[in-house]
Amino acid sequence: MRTPRHDGAAPTPADPDARWLAAVMHVTFLVLLASSMARYVHRHEDEARAPWVIALAVVLAVLYAAGPLRERAHRAPPRLLWLGGVVAVWSVLVALAPSFSWVAVPLFYVALRRLPPVAAYVLVGVLTVFVIVAQLQLAHRFDLDLVVGPAVVASFATAIFAHMQRQAARQRTLIDDLVRTRRELAATERREGTLAERQRLAMEIHDTLAQGLSSQQMLLQAADRVWESDPVKARAHVRTAESVAEHNLTEARRFVHDLAPADLARGGSLEEALRALAARESGDRLTVRAHIDGGARTSPLPDRVQSALLRIAQGALANVREHSGAAGAALTLTLLDDQAVLDVADDGHGFDPAALPDTPTGTRGHGLPAIRARVRQLGGTLTVESTPGEGTVLSAAIPLSGEGPRERPEPLP
Fold first, then answer.
1. Domains of the chain
2. Averaging pLDDT over each range in 58-72, 121-135, 211-225, 322-336, which range is the top one?
3. Around Cβ 372, how many Cβ atoms within 10 Å?
4. Residue 403 pLDDT grade (very low, low, confident, very high; cuts 50, 70, 90)
5. Who contacts 119 (Cβ-Cβ below 8 Å, separation ≥6)?
6. What is the chain's Cα-based Rg?
7. Contact (CB, 8 A) for 313 and 331
8. Backbone torsions φ then ψ of 37, nearest 5 degrees
9. Beta-strand (E) ranges in 65-183?
């Protein structure tokens, strides 16, 4: 709940609790004023000052109502001028007819609501003195209850209102902190999203464009070596390089539109895409075979799982071609009811998996860390088995039965 502020500003129209409390106080003021006037007319109808008292009561009612009505019309009068007029008319009215003194109770709220704390407390004290004097005049004798009662009521009302103000201030501070925290969290999420997108693009470029450019380079170098001795073979290398370049162009266009991998975007299945990948990667120095074991699975894999498995295969074969020195490699996709397993094996010189970093370093080394990140994002597991001189087997298992625990991608340097 948003309560009135210490600066004397009225609550905003959007605050239903403050509007409700203000409405109750306005009605209380008018009811007390009407009952006091009815009591005065009933007891002092024949007095000469009765018309003046009735006129002042009507003026006070009109003047008091003018403030809330003009506020609702967004034409609020100056607060101090309006409140000063209300208090002045009420004071004259109480001097003429002490029975109007209890109208001061809702005026306490008006003062506390519209004035700074110190000024409000002073005005409440002045109004309380008027009430005490008026009650003693009505009693025609000194009565301690008539002194203590109004003072206690005024003190209690002021304490309650001050407590509400402190609670409102603490609540506003808490809301401001929550808003600031939400903004900081949104900014952090935007930064993390930017870093994750940078990592995704780095992995995509490594697994597609960089791999294709490397293949083109090797094919053109092979064509250059045999250009004079075997022109037919050289032209075959050039045609293969042209095919790889065309595929890379498709991948580059896909980056712009953020679509699925080109092999899958053309409507092909993951099995067809893996076989096409194996055919593209096969050449003079490396022969790649693809084997698909679909088992009894009939439903297609989710699109993002297919995309991730194809990217993993591309990255793994890029590592085989560039680093293993292998003459042969095998892609094996095994589809089970609860998971898909992709194995990439080669007969290269192998390495020590424990010596590899978990994150990319330098200008190279995005292959395995990128594959590991893809697998983790899908809640899967990655196993790399290799021994120097005995080749390497990379196995990526992706769960299909439900969402596995995902890890937030670590930003690339």
1. 16-142 (no CATH), 184-399 (3.30.565.10)
2. 322-336
3. 20
4. very low
5. none
6. 42
7. yes
8. -65, -40
9. none
